[in-house]
Design a protein that fits this description.
With 594 residues, the chain is mainly alpha-helical. It has 22 helices and no strands. GO terms for molecular function: phosphate transmembrane transporter activity.
Protein backbone atom coordinates (compact mmCIF):
# COMPACT_ATOMS: atom_id res chain seq x y z
CA UNK A 1 0.00 0.00 0.00
CA UNK A 2 1.44 3.38 -1.01
CA UNK A 3 2.70 5.58 1.78
CA UNK A 4 0.57 8.60 0.88
CA UNK A 5 -2.53 6.51 1.58
CA UNK A 6 -1.62 6.83 5.27
CA UNK A 7 -1.57 10.61 5.21
CA UNK A 8 -4.93 10.79 6.94
CA UNK A 9 -3.46 8.78 9.85
CA UNK A 10 -0.67 11.35 10.13
CA UNK A 11 -3.20 14.21 10.16
CA UNK A 12 -5.33 12.54 12.85
CA UNK A 13 -2.22 11.64 14.86
CA UNK A 14 -1.02 15.25 14.68
CA UNK A 15 -4.39 16.46 15.92
CA UNK A 16 -4.37 14.13 18.92
CA UNK A 17 -0.71 14.94 19.67
CA UNK A 18 -1.62 18.62 19.91
CA UNK A 19 -4.74 17.79 21.92
CA UNK A 20 -2.64 15.73 24.34
CA UNK A 21 -0.18 18.62 24.70
CA UNK A 22 -3.07 21.03 25.24
CA UNK A 23 -4.50 18.81 27.98
CA UNK A 24 -1.04 18.49 29.50
CA UNK A 25 -0.86 22.25 29.89
CA UNK A 26 -4.40 22.51 31.22
CA UNK A 27 -3.82 19.75 33.78
CA UNK A 28 -0.21 19.29 34.86
CA UNK A 29 1.19 22.78 34.22
CA UNK A 30 -1.81 24.37 35.90
CA UNK A 31 -1.16 22.21 38.95
CA UNK A 32 2.49 23.29 38.97
CA UNK A 33 1.50 26.98 39.10
CA UNK A 34 -1.47 26.51 41.45
CA UNK A 35 0.93 26.58 44.41
CA UNK A 36 2.31 30.00 43.51
CA UNK A 37 -1.07 31.52 42.71
CA UNK A 38 -2.67 30.08 45.85
CA UNK A 39 0.20 31.40 47.98
CA UNK A 40 -0.43 34.88 46.52
CA UNK A 41 3.18 35.13 45.41
CA UNK A 42 2.19 35.82 41.82
CA UNK A 43 -0.94 36.85 39.97
CA UNK A 44 -2.73 34.48 37.63
CA UNK A 45 -1.74 36.45 34.53
CA UNK A 46 1.90 36.63 35.59
CA UNK A 47 1.84 32.87 36.10
CA UNK A 48 0.61 32.43 32.54
CA UNK A 49 3.44 34.57 31.14
CA UNK A 50 6.25 32.97 33.13
CA UNK A 51 4.76 29.52 32.64
CA UNK A 52 4.78 29.93 28.86
CA UNK A 53 8.37 31.13 28.73
CA UNK A 54 9.88 28.45 30.96
CA UNK A 55 7.76 25.61 29.61
CA UNK A 56 9.15 26.26 26.15
CA UNK A 57 12.71 26.64 27.41
CA UNK A 58 12.57 23.34 29.27
CA UNK A 59 10.92 21.51 26.40
CA UNK A 60 13.28 22.72 23.67
CA UNK A 61 16.55 22.39 25.58
CA UNK A 62 15.99 19.20 27.59
CA UNK A 63 12.76 17.58 26.41
CA UNK A 64 14.24 15.25 23.78
CA UNK A 65 15.51 12.74 26.36
CA UNK A 66 12.19 11.62 27.82
CA UNK A 67 10.65 11.74 24.34
CA UNK A 68 13.07 9.00 23.28
CA UNK A 69 11.85 6.78 26.13
CA UNK A 70 8.21 7.21 25.06
CA UNK A 71 9.14 6.48 21.42
CA UNK A 72 11.25 3.37 21.79
CA UNK A 73 11.26 2.27 25.42
CA UNK A 74 7.80 0.70 25.76
CA UNK A 75 7.14 -1.00 22.42
CA UNK A 76 10.38 -2.19 20.79
CA UNK A 77 10.79 -0.83 17.29
CA UNK A 78 11.51 -4.30 15.90
CA UNK A 79 8.06 -5.49 17.00
CA UNK A 80 6.46 -3.60 14.10
CA UNK A 81 8.57 -5.55 11.57
CA UNK A 82 9.05 -2.51 9.39
CA UNK A 83 5.32 -1.83 8.99
CA UNK A 84 5.22 1.96 9.15
CA UNK A 85 1.42 2.07 8.77
CA UNK A 86 0.76 -0.09 11.82
CA UNK A 87 3.30 1.89 13.82
CA UNK A 88 1.59 5.18 12.91
CA UNK A 89 -1.82 3.78 13.79
CA UNK A 90 -0.55 2.42 17.12
CA UNK A 91 0.76 5.73 18.40
CA UNK A 92 -2.23 7.62 17.02
CA UNK A 93 -4.58 5.39 19.04
CA UNK A 94 -2.41 5.88 22.13
CA UNK A 95 -2.60 9.66 21.79
CA UNK A 96 -6.36 9.52 21.18
CA UNK A 97 -6.99 7.40 24.28
CA UNK A 98 -4.74 9.44 26.58
CA UNK A 99 -5.93 12.86 25.41
CA UNK A 100 -9.60 11.87 25.64
CA UNK A 101 -9.24 10.60 29.20
CA UNK A 102 -7.24 13.60 30.42
CA UNK A 103 -9.59 16.10 28.76
CA UNK A 104 -12.62 14.48 30.41
CA UNK A 105 -10.90 14.62 33.78
CA UNK A 106 -9.83 18.25 33.29
CA UNK A 107 -13.34 19.26 32.28
CA UNK A 108 -14.61 17.87 35.57
CA UNK A 109 -11.71 19.41 37.56
CA UNK A 110 -10.34 15.93 38.33
CA UNK A 111 -6.58 15.93 38.59
CA UNK A 112 -4.83 12.98 36.89
CA UNK A 113 -1.36 12.31 35.55
CA UNK A 114 -1.09 12.96 31.82
CA UNK A 115 2.30 11.24 31.87
CA UNK A 116 1.00 7.91 33.12
CA UNK A 117 -2.13 8.27 31.04
CA UNK A 118 -0.09 8.24 27.83
CA UNK A 119 2.33 5.59 29.03
CA UNK A 120 -0.56 3.31 29.95
CA UNK A 121 -2.23 3.96 26.60
CA UNK A 122 1.00 3.09 24.75
CA UNK A 123 1.26 -0.14 26.74
CA UNK A 124 -2.37 -1.02 25.94
CA UNK A 125 -1.81 -0.31 22.27
CA UNK A 126 1.30 -2.47 22.35
CA UNK A 127 -0.65 -5.42 23.75
CA UNK A 128 -3.30 -5.06 21.03
CA UNK A 129 -0.72 -4.65 18.26
CA UNK A 130 2.17 -7.02 18.92
CA UNK A 131 1.00 -8.99 21.96
CA UNK A 132 1.79 -8.73 25.66
CA UNK A 133 5.09 -10.58 25.27
CA UNK A 134 6.51 -7.89 22.97
CA UNK A 135 5.80 -5.02 25.39
CA UNK A 136 8.82 -4.19 27.53
CA UNK A 137 7.35 -4.73 30.99
CA UNK A 138 10.70 -4.97 32.73
CA UNK A 139 13.46 -2.50 33.54
CA UNK A 140 15.26 -2.52 30.16
CA UNK A 141 18.14 -0.25 31.11
CA UNK A 142 15.77 2.17 32.83
CA UNK A 143 13.50 2.62 29.80
CA UNK A 144 10.94 -0.15 30.24
CA UNK A 145 7.56 -0.02 31.94
CA UNK A 146 9.04 -1.46 35.14
CA UNK A 147 11.35 1.54 35.49
CA UNK A 148 8.66 4.03 34.48
CA UNK A 149 6.02 2.72 36.88
CA UNK A 150 8.59 2.54 39.66
CA UNK A 151 8.49 6.32 39.51
CA UNK A 152 4.80 6.13 40.47
CA UNK A 153 5.92 5.33 44.01
CA UNK A 154 9.46 6.70 44.10
CA UNK A 155 8.87 10.19 42.70
CA UNK A 156 6.34 11.43 45.31
CA UNK A 157 8.47 10.06 48.15
CA UNK A 158 11.69 11.56 46.83
CA UNK A 159 9.94 14.85 46.13
CA UNK A 160 8.49 14.87 49.65
CA UNK A 161 12.00 14.41 51.04
CA UNK A 162 13.47 17.25 48.99
CA UNK A 163 10.56 19.60 49.78
CA UNK A 164 10.67 18.83 53.50
CA UNK A 165 14.46 19.25 53.65
CA UNK A 166 14.32 22.67 51.97
CA UNK A 167 11.47 23.92 54.17
CA UNK A 168 13.13 22.65 57.34
CA UNK A 169 16.25 24.54 56.28
CA UNK A 170 14.14 27.71 55.95
CA UNK A 171 12.40 26.95 59.22
CA UNK A 172 15.64 26.51 61.17
CA UNK A 173 17.47 29.45 59.59
CA UNK A 174 14.57 31.91 59.49
CA UNK A 175 11.21 31.01 61.05
CA UNK A 176 12.53 29.79 64.40
CA UNK A 177 14.39 33.06 65.07
CA UNK A 178 13.04 35.67 67.46
CA UNK A 179 13.29 38.26 64.70
CA UNK A 180 12.95 36.24 61.47
CA UNK A 181 12.55 39.09 58.97
CA UNK A 182 16.27 40.10 58.71
CA UNK A 183 17.25 36.44 58.45
CA UNK A 184 14.81 35.99 55.56
CA UNK A 185 16.20 39.03 53.76
CA UNK A 186 19.91 38.24 54.08
CA UNK A 187 19.57 34.51 53.31
CA UNK A 188 17.46 35.00 50.16
CA UNK A 189 20.39 35.03 47.66
CA UNK A 190 21.09 31.40 48.55
CA UNK A 191 17.77 30.29 47.10
CA UNK A 192 18.37 32.27 43.94
CA UNK A 193 21.66 30.37 43.72
CA UNK A 194 19.90 27.01 44.07
CA UNK A 195 17.24 27.79 41.46
CA UNK A 196 19.72 29.15 38.93
CA UNK A 197 22.11 26.24 39.39
CA UNK A 198 19.42 23.59 38.95
CA UNK A 199 18.02 25.17 35.79
CA UNK A 200 21.44 25.63 34.21
CA UNK A 201 22.67 22.16 35.17
CA UNK A 202 19.61 20.52 33.64
CA UNK A 203 20.26 22.34 30.35
CA UNK A 204 23.98 21.72 29.88
CA UNK A 205 24.34 18.29 31.55
CA UNK A 206 23.14 15.65 29.06
CA UNK A 207 21.23 18.40 27.32
CA UNK A 208 19.32 18.22 24.06
CA UNK A 209 21.25 16.29 21.37
CA UNK A 210 19.87 18.69 18.77
CA UNK A 211 21.70 21.58 20.41
CA UNK A 212 24.95 19.66 20.87
CA UNK A 213 24.85 20.11 24.65
CA UNK A 214 25.33 16.39 25.32
CA UNK A 215 28.88 16.56 23.92
CA UNK A 216 30.25 19.37 26.07
CA UNK A 217 33.25 18.60 28.34
CA UNK A 218 33.02 18.47 32.13
CA UNK A 219 34.84 21.78 32.63
CA UNK A 220 32.30 23.52 30.39
CA UNK A 221 29.38 22.09 32.33
CA UNK A 222 30.89 23.09 35.70
CA UNK A 223 31.86 26.58 34.53
CA UNK A 224 28.49 27.43 32.99
CA UNK A 225 26.48 25.96 35.87
CA UNK A 226 28.43 27.68 38.62
CA UNK A 227 28.72 30.87 36.59
CA UNK A 228 24.98 31.26 36.00
CA UNK A 229 23.97 30.15 39.52
CA UNK A 230 26.60 32.31 41.16
CA UNK A 231 25.81 35.23 38.89
CA UNK A 232 22.11 35.07 39.82
CA UNK A 233 23.11 34.94 43.49
CA UNK A 234 25.31 38.03 43.13
CA UNK A 235 22.65 39.94 41.21
CA UNK A 236 20.05 39.15 43.85
CA UNK A 237 22.44 40.34 46.56
CA UNK A 238 23.03 43.62 44.70
CA UNK A 239 19.49 44.42 43.59
CA UNK A 240 16.97 42.26 45.45
CA UNK A 241 18.32 42.44 49.01
CA UNK A 242 18.40 46.28 49.22
CA UNK A 243 14.93 46.45 47.66
CA UNK A 244 13.32 43.99 50.06
CA UNK A 245 15.31 45.47 53.00
CA UNK A 246 13.78 48.90 52.35
CA UNK A 247 10.33 47.43 51.98
CA UNK A 248 10.03 45.01 54.93
CA UNK A 249 12.67 46.14 57.44
CA UNK A 250 12.69 49.91 56.95
CA UNK A 251 8.92 49.69 56.19
CA UNK A 252 9.14 52.45 53.60
CA UNK A 253 5.67 52.71 52.03
CA UNK A 254 7.02 54.71 49.08
CA UNK A 255 9.14 51.87 47.64
CA UNK A 256 7.90 50.85 44.18
CA UNK A 257 8.68 47.62 42.34
CA UNK A 258 10.93 49.30 39.76
CA UNK A 259 13.21 50.77 42.45
CA UNK A 260 15.22 47.54 42.58
CA UNK A 261 17.37 49.15 39.85
CA UNK A 262 18.79 51.51 42.51
CA UNK A 263 20.62 48.57 44.03
CA UNK A 264 22.73 49.32 47.14
CA UNK A 265 21.68 52.99 46.98
CA UNK A 266 18.37 51.93 48.51
CA UNK A 267 20.17 51.01 51.73
CA UNK A 268 21.17 54.66 52.24
CA UNK A 269 17.95 56.14 50.89
CA UNK A 270 16.01 58.02 53.61
CA UNK A 271 12.61 56.63 54.51
CA UNK A 272 10.03 58.74 52.68
CA UNK A 273 6.81 57.29 54.08
CA UNK A 274 7.35 55.10 57.10
CA UNK A 275 4.48 52.91 58.22
CA UNK A 276 3.72 50.93 61.34
CA UNK A 277 3.70 47.78 59.24
CA UNK A 278 5.34 46.91 55.95
CA UNK A 279 3.15 47.34 52.89
CA UNK A 280 2.78 43.67 52.03
CA UNK A 281 -0.20 41.35 51.42
CA UNK A 282 -1.82 39.34 54.19
CA UNK A 283 -0.68 35.83 53.29
CA UNK A 284 -2.60 34.24 56.17
CA UNK A 285 -5.96 34.75 54.44
CA UNK A 286 -7.13 31.51 52.82
CA UNK A 287 -10.92 31.43 52.83
CA UNK A 288 -12.62 34.77 53.20
CA UNK A 289 -15.98 35.65 51.68
CA UNK A 290 -16.64 39.20 50.58
CA UNK A 291 -19.58 40.87 52.23
CA UNK A 292 -21.45 41.20 48.97
CA UNK A 293 -20.88 37.52 48.23
CA UNK A 294 -22.21 36.53 51.63
CA UNK A 295 -25.24 38.73 51.25
CA UNK A 296 -25.86 37.40 47.76
CA UNK A 297 -25.69 33.85 49.05
CA UNK A 298 -28.13 34.71 51.84
CA UNK A 299 -30.47 36.36 49.39
CA UNK A 300 -30.28 33.36 47.07
CA UNK A 301 -31.27 31.04 49.90
CA UNK A 302 -34.48 32.94 50.59
CA UNK A 303 -37.48 31.89 48.49
CA UNK A 304 -40.22 34.17 47.33
CA UNK A 305 -42.66 34.95 50.12
CA UNK A 306 -46.39 34.67 49.70
CA UNK A 307 -49.33 35.16 52.02
CA UNK A 308 -50.45 32.58 54.55
CA UNK A 309 -48.98 30.55 57.35
CA UNK A 310 -47.81 27.75 55.07
CA UNK A 311 -45.82 30.13 52.93
CA UNK A 312 -44.29 31.70 56.05
CA UNK A 313 -43.19 28.23 57.16
CA UNK A 314 -41.61 27.61 53.77
CA UNK A 315 -39.78 30.92 54.04
CA UNK A 316 -38.29 29.97 57.39
CA UNK A 317 -37.16 26.63 55.96
CA UNK A 318 -35.61 28.29 52.93
CA UNK A 319 -33.70 30.75 55.11
CA UNK A 320 -31.99 27.93 56.95
CA UNK A 321 -31.20 25.99 53.79
CA UNK A 322 -27.54 25.98 52.74
CA UNK A 323 -26.50 26.17 49.11
CA UNK A 324 -24.60 23.17 47.82
CA UNK A 325 -20.90 23.42 46.97
CA UNK A 326 -21.74 23.25 43.25
CA UNK A 327 -24.26 26.07 43.62
CA UNK A 328 -21.66 28.18 45.44
CA UNK A 329 -19.18 27.62 42.61
CA UNK A 330 -21.80 28.54 40.02
CA UNK A 331 -22.63 31.68 42.01
CA UNK A 332 -18.95 32.59 42.04
CA UNK A 333 -18.72 32.11 38.27
CA UNK A 334 -21.75 34.35 37.74
CA UNK A 335 -20.21 36.98 40.00
CA UNK A 336 -16.94 36.88 38.05
CA UNK A 337 -18.74 37.18 34.71
CA UNK A 338 -20.75 40.12 36.03
CA UNK A 339 -17.50 41.92 36.92
CA UNK A 340 -15.94 41.14 33.55
CA UNK A 341 -18.98 42.51 31.70
CA UNK A 342 -18.25 45.93 33.16
CA UNK A 343 -14.77 46.05 31.60
CA UNK A 344 -14.04 47.76 28.30
CA UNK A 345 -11.71 45.14 26.82
CA UNK A 346 -12.45 42.26 24.43
CA UNK A 347 -13.58 40.00 27.26
CA UNK A 348 -16.18 42.48 28.46
CA UNK A 349 -17.45 42.97 24.90
CA UNK A 350 -17.71 39.21 24.35
CA UNK A 351 -19.67 38.53 27.54
CA UNK A 352 -22.02 41.44 26.90
CA UNK A 353 -22.59 40.19 23.37
CA UNK A 354 -23.49 36.71 24.60
CA UNK A 355 -25.77 38.17 27.26
CA UNK A 356 -27.59 40.52 24.89
CA UNK A 357 -27.99 37.98 22.08
CA UNK A 358 -29.52 34.80 23.49
CA UNK A 359 -30.68 32.14 21.07
CA UNK A 360 -34.33 32.54 20.12
CA UNK A 361 -37.11 29.95 20.05
CA UNK A 362 -37.16 27.19 17.47
CA UNK A 363 -34.38 25.20 15.83
CA UNK A 364 -30.93 26.57 15.11
CA UNK A 365 -31.65 26.70 11.36
CA UNK A 366 -34.36 29.33 11.87
CA UNK A 367 -33.35 32.53 10.07
CA UNK A 368 -33.52 34.58 13.29
CA UNK A 369 -31.28 32.11 15.13
CA UNK A 370 -28.79 32.02 12.25
CA UNK A 371 -28.43 35.80 12.47
CA UNK A 372 -27.96 35.61 16.24
CA UNK A 373 -25.43 32.79 15.85
CA UNK A 374 -23.24 34.91 13.56
CA UNK A 375 -23.11 37.50 16.35
CA UNK A 376 -22.40 34.93 19.05
CA UNK A 377 -19.62 32.95 17.32
CA UNK A 378 -16.94 35.72 17.47
CA UNK A 379 -17.85 36.38 21.11
CA UNK A 380 -17.64 32.67 21.92
CA UNK A 381 -14.17 32.48 20.35
CA UNK A 382 -12.97 35.47 22.36
CA UNK A 383 -14.37 33.98 25.57
CA UNK A 384 -12.68 30.66 24.89
CA UNK A 385 -9.30 32.31 24.34
CA UNK A 386 -9.38 34.96 27.09
CA UNK A 387 -11.64 33.65 29.88
CA UNK A 388 -8.79 31.72 31.50
CA UNK A 389 -6.64 34.87 31.69
CA UNK A 390 -9.39 36.72 33.55
CA UNK A 391 -10.36 33.91 35.93
CA UNK A 392 -10.21 34.79 39.63
CA UNK A 393 -8.59 31.78 41.31
CA UNK A 394 -8.90 33.23 44.82
CA UNK A 395 -12.59 33.94 44.38
CA UNK A 396 -13.10 30.38 43.17
CA UNK A 397 -11.46 29.02 46.32
CA UNK A 398 -13.68 31.02 48.69
CA UNK A 399 -17.24 30.44 49.68
CA UNK A 400 -16.83 26.83 50.81
CA UNK A 401 -16.79 27.47 54.54
CA UNK A 402 -20.33 26.16 54.87
CA UNK A 403 -19.51 22.79 53.30
CA UNK A 404 -17.87 19.69 54.83
CA UNK A 405 -14.86 20.29 52.58
CA UNK A 406 -14.50 23.84 53.93
CA UNK A 407 -14.75 22.68 57.55
CA UNK A 408 -12.16 19.99 56.90
CA UNK A 409 -9.71 22.45 55.39
CA UNK A 410 -10.18 24.88 58.27
CA UNK A 411 -9.10 22.11 60.65
CA UNK A 412 -6.05 21.44 58.47
CA UNK A 413 -5.10 25.13 58.36
CA UNK A 414 -5.43 25.39 62.14
CA UNK A 415 -2.47 23.01 62.56
CA UNK A 416 -0.18 25.12 60.37
CA UNK A 417 1.74 27.91 62.03
CA UNK A 418 1.31 31.32 60.39
CA UNK A 419 4.53 33.29 59.99
CA UNK A 420 4.93 37.11 59.75
CA UNK A 421 3.75 38.59 56.47
CA UNK A 422 7.06 40.42 56.06
CA UNK A 423 8.94 37.12 56.13
CA UNK A 424 6.54 35.44 53.74
CA UNK A 425 6.74 38.42 51.39
CA UNK A 426 10.47 37.85 51.04
CA UNK A 427 9.86 34.30 49.89
CA UNK A 428 7.12 35.39 47.50
CA UNK A 429 9.88 36.68 45.21
CA UNK A 430 11.87 33.50 45.67
CA UNK A 431 8.77 31.47 44.87
CA UNK A 432 8.58 33.10 41.45
CA UNK A 433 12.05 31.72 40.74
CA UNK A 434 11.19 28.29 42.11
CA UNK A 435 7.92 28.25 40.15
CA UNK A 436 9.81 29.06 36.98
CA UNK A 437 12.24 26.25 37.83
CA UNK A 438 9.32 23.86 38.35
CA UNK A 439 7.79 24.96 35.04
CA UNK A 440 11.13 24.47 33.30
CA UNK A 441 11.34 21.00 34.81
CA UNK A 442 7.83 20.20 33.62
CA UNK A 443 8.65 21.29 30.08
CA UNK A 444 11.79 19.15 30.17
CA UNK A 445 9.90 16.07 31.28
CA UNK A 446 6.30 16.14 30.08
CA UNK A 447 6.93 17.34 26.53
CA UNK A 448 7.98 13.75 25.85
CA UNK A 449 4.40 12.62 26.46
CA UNK A 450 3.17 14.21 23.26
CA UNK A 451 6.24 14.70 21.12
CA UNK A 452 7.45 11.10 21.46
CA UNK A 453 4.43 9.51 19.71
CA UNK A 454 4.14 12.42 17.29
CA UNK A 455 7.80 12.06 16.30
CA UNK A 456 7.19 8.37 15.58
CA UNK A 457 4.12 9.16 13.46
CA UNK A 458 5.93 11.90 11.54
CA UNK A 459 9.05 9.80 10.93
CA UNK A 460 7.07 6.80 9.71
CA UNK A 461 4.90 8.99 7.46
CA UNK A 462 7.77 11.01 5.96
CA UNK A 463 10.19 8.12 5.40
CA UNK A 464 7.93 5.08 5.02
CA UNK A 465 10.09 3.14 7.47
CA UNK A 466 9.29 2.09 11.02
CA UNK A 467 13.00 2.14 11.80
CA UNK A 468 13.06 5.92 11.33
CA UNK A 469 11.44 6.27 14.77
CA UNK A 470 14.91 5.85 16.27
CA UNK A 471 15.96 9.21 14.85
CA UNK A 472 16.32 12.26 17.13
CA UNK A 473 13.30 14.44 17.78
CA UNK A 474 13.46 17.63 15.67
CA UNK A 475 13.59 20.88 17.62
CA UNK A 476 10.66 22.30 15.65
CA UNK A 477 8.40 19.53 16.98
CA UNK A 478 9.42 20.34 20.55
CA UNK A 479 8.70 24.03 19.92
CA UNK A 480 5.26 23.42 18.37
CA UNK A 481 3.99 21.16 21.14
CA UNK A 482 5.48 23.27 23.93
CA UNK A 483 3.54 26.23 22.52
CA UNK A 484 0.41 24.05 22.53
CA UNK A 485 1.06 23.14 26.18
CA UNK A 486 1.22 26.84 27.01
CA UNK A 487 -2.04 27.42 25.16
CA UNK A 488 -3.71 24.77 27.30
CA UNK A 489 -2.39 26.41 30.46
CA UNK A 490 -3.66 29.85 29.45
CA UNK A 491 -7.11 28.94 28.17
CA UNK A 492 -8.15 25.91 30.24
CA UNK A 493 -5.81 25.57 33.20
CA UNK A 494 -8.13 27.39 35.60
CA UNK A 495 -10.27 24.22 35.88
CA UNK A 496 -7.47 22.50 37.79
CA UNK A 497 -6.07 25.56 39.56
CA UNK A 498 -9.37 26.39 41.23
CA UNK A 499 -9.55 23.01 42.99
CA UNK A 500 -5.87 22.22 43.68
CA UNK A 501 -4.76 25.35 45.52
CA UNK A 502 -4.72 24.97 49.33
CA UNK A 503 -6.62 21.68 49.14
CA UNK A 504 -3.89 19.44 50.56
CA UNK A 505 -2.30 21.63 53.21
CA UNK A 506 -1.84 25.27 54.12
CA UNK A 507 0.17 27.23 51.54
CA UNK A 508 2.37 30.26 52.03
CA UNK A 509 5.29 31.64 49.98
CA UNK A 510 8.00 30.01 52.12
CA UNK A 511 6.17 26.69 52.02
CA UNK A 512 5.27 27.03 48.35
CA UNK A 513 8.84 27.77 47.26
CA UNK A 514 10.00 24.66 49.14
CA UNK A 515 7.30 22.54 47.48
CA UNK A 516 8.14 23.76 44.00
CA UNK A 517 11.90 23.41 44.43
CA UNK A 518 11.55 19.89 45.83
CA UNK A 519 9.33 18.88 42.91
CA UNK A 520 11.62 20.54 40.35
CA UNK A 521 14.72 18.77 41.65
CA UNK A 522 12.94 15.41 41.53
CA UNK A 523 11.63 15.90 37.98
CA UNK A 524 15.02 17.01 36.71
CA UNK A 525 16.76 14.04 38.32
CA UNK A 526 14.36 11.65 36.61
CA UNK A 527 14.72 13.54 33.33
CA UNK A 528 18.50 13.12 33.43
CA UNK A 529 17.96 9.36 33.37
CA UNK A 530 15.36 9.64 30.56
CA UNK A 531 12.55 8.48 32.88
CA UNK A 532 9.16 10.13 32.32
CA UNK A 533 7.69 11.00 35.70
CA UNK A 534 4.51 12.79 36.67
CA UNK A 535 5.14 16.38 37.71
CA UNK A 536 1.71 16.27 39.35
CA UNK A 537 2.84 13.44 41.60
CA UNK A 538 6.06 15.27 42.42
CA UNK A 539 4.36 18.52 43.45
CA UNK A 540 1.79 16.53 45.44
CA UNK A 541 4.52 14.59 47.22
CA UNK A 542 6.43 17.79 47.98
CA UNK A 543 3.24 19.41 49.27
CA UNK A 544 2.63 16.52 51.66
CA UNK A 545 6.27 16.56 52.78
CA UNK A 546 6.16 20.28 53.58
CA UNK A 547 2.79 19.87 55.30
CA UNK A 548 4.23 17.23 57.61
CA UNK A 549 6.91 19.71 58.67
CA UNK A 550 4.19 21.30 60.82
CA UNK A 551 4.83 18.42 63.21
CA UNK A 552 1.45 16.68 62.98
CA UNK A 553 -0.42 14.44 60.56
CA UNK A 554 -3.48 16.65 61.02
CA UNK A 555 -1.84 19.41 58.96
CA UNK A 556 -2.45 17.36 55.78
CA UNK A 557 -5.81 16.67 54.17
CA UNK A 558 -5.41 12.91 53.76
CA UNK A 559 -8.80 12.55 52.13
CA UNK A 560 -7.65 14.71 49.22
CA UNK A 561 -4.36 12.82 49.02
CA UNK A 562 -6.28 9.53 48.95
CA UNK A 563 -8.52 10.79 46.13
CA UNK A 564 -5.49 11.87 44.13
CA UNK A 565 -3.80 8.52 44.66
CA UNK A 566 -6.98 6.71 43.59
CA UNK A 567 -7.23 8.79 40.40
CA UNK A 568 -3.59 8.09 39.56
CA UNK A 569 -4.01 4.35 39.99
CA UNK A 570 -7.29 4.22 38.02
CA UNK A 571 -5.67 6.12 35.15
CA UNK A 572 -3.45 3.14 34.36
CA UNK A 573 -6.16 0.55 33.57
CA UNK A 574 -8.60 3.06 32.05
CA UNK A 575 -6.13 4.70 29.66
CA UNK A 576 -4.52 1.34 28.85
CA UNK A 577 -7.88 -0.26 28.08
CA UNK A 578 -9.00 2.69 25.93
CA UNK A 579 -5.80 2.56 23.89
CA UNK A 580 -5.92 -1.22 23.48
CA UNK A 581 -9.60 -1.27 22.48
CA UNK A 582 -9.14 1.53 19.93
CA UNK A 583 -6.13 -0.18 18.38
CA UNK A 584 -7.88 -3.54 18.32
CA UNK A 585 -10.93 -2.09 16.59
CA UNK A 586 -9.00 -0.22 13.91
CA UNK A 587 -6.43 -2.94 13.33
CA UNK A 588 -9.04 -5.64 12.86
CA UNK A 589 -11.73 -3.57 11.12
CA UNK A 590 -12.75 -4.72 7.62
CA UNK A 591 -10.76 -2.96 4.92
CA UNK A 592 -10.94 -3.10 1.18
CA UNK A 593 -8.37 -2.70 -1.54
CA UNK A 594 -9.02 -1.67 -5.12
Amino acid sequence: MALDQYTYVFVIGTFFAMLDAYNNGANDVANAWATSVSSRSISYRQAMIFGTIFEMLGAITVGARTADTIKNGIIPNAAFRGDAGVQMLAFTCALAAASTWVMWCTRHSAHVSSTYSLISAVAGVGVATVGAKQVQWGWYDGKGLGAIFAGLFMAPCISAGFGAAIFMLIKVIVHMRKNPVPWAVWSSPFFFLVAGTICTLSIVYKGSPNLGLNKKPAWYIAAVTLGVGGGLCVLSAIFFVPFIYSKVIKKDQSVKWWMFIYGPALLKRPVVAEGEQAKVPNYAVVQDDDEDESSARSAASIGESTEGANNEKKLVESETKQLSYKEMQEAGDRKLKAKLMEKKGPMGWALRTLRDNPMGPGQIYELNNIKILFKRIPAMVVCGLLYGLHYDIHAAQTGVSGTPDGARMQRVYAHAEKYPNETEHTYSFIQIITACTASFAHGANDIGNSVGPWAVIYSAWSTGSAAAAKADVPVWQLAVLSATISLGLITYGYNIMKVMGNKITYHSPSRGSSMEMGAAITVLVFSQYSLPVSTSMCITGATVGVGLCNGTLKAVNWQRVGLLLFSWIMTIPIAGTLGGVLMGLFLNAPHFSS
